[in-house]
Amino acid sequence: MATGPLRFRTPHIEELPTTGSKQSPNYVYMAVSGQQEDPAKNWGTNNRKRARASVGKQTDQQREALSARQQREVERRIKDLNSDYKPALEVVVPKRDGGAGVGSAAKAGKTPNTKKILASGKTFTHHLEDEEAEIARTGRRDGDAEAPPATHRASKTPLARRKAREDSSLSGSPAPVTPMAPPPLPRSAQALLPSSNAMEIDVEDDDDEYDSIPALPSEAEMEALLNAPPLTYNQARSAPPPPGAPPPRRFCETCGYWGRVKCMKCGAMTCSVACKDDHDQFKCLKMYA
Amino acid sequence: MARQKAHSLINAPAPAPAAPPTATLILDAGAHTLKAGFSTAGTCHIIPNCLARSDRDRRTYIAADLASCRDFGELAVRRPVERGYIVDWSGEKAVWEHVFAAGGVLGGVVAAETTLVLTEQPGAPAGTARMSDEMVFEEFGFAGYYRALGPALNAYAPSPFLPSTAPPPPPGTPLECLLVVDAGHSHTTVTPLYHGRPLHPACRRLDIGGKLLTNHLKQLLSARTFDVHKEVWLVNEIKEDACFVSQHFARDLERTWKHNGSPRTKVDDGGDSIVQDYILPDYETITRGFTRPHDPTLTARNRLGLGLATTSTPATAPKEHILTLGNERFVPPELLFTPSDIGIPSAGLTGTVLQSLAALPASLRPAFLANIVVVGGTALLPGLVERLRAELRARVEEGTEVRVARAGDAVGNCWLGGARMARDGGGLGRVVVTRGEYFEHGEGWVRRRFAGKGVR
């Protein structure tokens, strides 16, 4: 808007009228999405947090880095929980008092096989990996006489999580020629199971509203189920909960109550301000694996 | 790994002429305790299956010697059974020799005249199975041997669902349908059994056991009270004495909220308090800790440095070290039902049971749901059976009968089943492998026999 003649030459500025324009004040209300950055709240934080809070976006890389650290922390904790107390490995078998002559022979083992066993320092994970390697190499469990038709890499996914496979080793297990099973099904059980011949079922009209009870498996199916090969250690593990399950609960690190506040630096949760102070002072990033 | 051991058998000691074995010894080798006894006995001897060294006493205790130990502080415990399988045979040999010794609890075992029934957990790698077979025959020299699946032996024990007045079934008959939940030291297995035989495709294992619960409790206590991360034995006792499975986790957590130690700390909730005081043993006057209802005045005096002298006890009374246990009582056992609390990617005990059932044909599921037996040391936690029953009932459709019971003797039930099966000579005779057969056919053949394949 021209305000009158000026002393120096100005470029010509003209406001073009638009159809809907009318005189409007020099402020306007706008809807803004996301959290507003209140400078008072962000004091004392480094740029990372400001960027995350105010811009509203955490780059994927940052999110991944935080969750990778948390994941490592979780795995370290689980491993700790499963461990035995370290000095326990150094407990030595004491020498027996009586029978000095017997002592040395008995300690070392009577036959070459037992000498090897007594001297071996293998732990359970060694045996497990040996077995998985053997299965992967030959596709054959230790008890089977022949290899199942399809060989595939031994999978560590629990059985319940696997998709049904056509060529899984379980479906292709060889049925033993003359199964010796301890002890065989007693006669009474065989009488109860319906034979594979067709049975007469007396269905009354009144029972239509009830769901049909599935028939008991036939004797042949039962035998097949009983003679199925045992699952390996990894196959038998319990599967994770289905994806629709509620998310894992988090607890306060200091006192054990529900976790409400997440620490920005390390991702641990605390329940209240007092517990959070304790966490920041003593535990945040202070414990390293 | 089925390799014939013919070349090594030439040097093996020649088997003694076959005298029929006079006794049958049942050994249930667990990671925490060894249950041992002859089949003619009524109950088993429960022996700690470990070698323990106490730096304070400067003594190494083997197995049952631990009963004579006075000082369990900072006890270094070596367990030869790892995750349910015997991997450390030099240690296990020491334990077995101690148990079999002439002055031991069993009154002396002559291996050459005894048949051994040894249990093992499902899913054993070939290496551990082979080691067990070779040690039993070549080192100890038993006359006969049967390596049984641990949970399967439970089918031969009397059913906890029958009233105690009912006559027990004859010794050799297994229960028809049984779902065994074995909550032990290393893990928890779910095994459906049909006439004593396991249905392998439906066996499941949850990698949470008493050991993980003890370690978790150790971490919680070390973070919140005293540093006990070296005191495995002590924390195990605390867990056995004070821990329980809560029926309403959220409600119990509210009741034990400490309010950050402010004076508003509410501990008594209508007289049904969860918070307890645990008196720690000092191994001079008190050898074993015990629990007591929470007394806030004592802890206040402790904090103020007044010591423990009250008006009733003189000032010279021995000092007590008190641990106050609030949510530490029920948070570790909660891991059994919600392993995701700590980040373990498993489904929890109820979920594992349901996974096992889902692998069975639909018509069999009601039969197994109505016959769930919980055994094992961790099953002794109060409230575990009720919680499992309630959760299963909530997740299974209406109208299905759900019966869950703990076996009468949870720790020794598997042994009892083995003993009852052994008393029926014919049943055992079918499955046992004699020493002569072992040296004739070799170890691989024996392993295939125990896996259920091959010809008698």
Describe this structure in words.
The complex is a heterodimer of chains A (289) and B (456). Chain A is mainly α and 289 residues long. Helices cover 31% and strands 1% of the residues of chain A. Chain A is built from 8 helices and 2 strands; from the N terminus they run αααααααββα. Chain A has a two-stranded antiparallel sheet with strand order 1-2. In chain A, a hairpin with a 6-residue loop joins strand 1 and strand 2. The longest helix of chain A is centred in the N-terminal third of the chain and has 23 residues, at 60-82. Chain B is globular, with a radius of gyration of 24 Å. Chain B is an alpha+beta fold and 456 residues long. Helix content of chain B is 32%, strand content 19%. In chain B, the strands form 5 sheets. In chain B, strands 3-2-1-9-10-20 form a 6-stranded mixed beta sheet, with helices on both faces. Chain B is built from 16 helices and 20 strands. Chains A and B meet through helix 2, helix 4, helix 5 and helix 7 of A and strand 4, strand 6, helix 2, helix 3 and strand 13 of B.
Helix percentage range of chain B: 25-40%
Task: Give the oligomeric state.
Answer: heterodimer
* Beta strands of chain A, count: 2
Average pLDDT reading of chain A: 68
SSE topology string of chain A: HHHHHHHEEH
Net shape of chain B: globular
Class based on secondary structure composition and strand pairing of chain B? alpha+beta
User: Could you give the distance between the termini of chain B?
Assistant: 21 Å
Counted beta strands of chain B = 20
- Helical region count of chain A? 8
Query: What profile does the largest beta sheet of chain A have?
Result: 2 strands, antiparallel
Model regions low in confidence, pLDDT < 50 over at least 5 residues of chain B = 1-12, 305-311
Computed structural class of chain A: mainly alpha
DSSP strand (E) fraction of chain B? 15-25%
Strand order of the largest sheet of chain B: 3-2-1-9-10-20
Low-confidence stretches of chain A: 98-103, 145-151, 165-192, 194-210
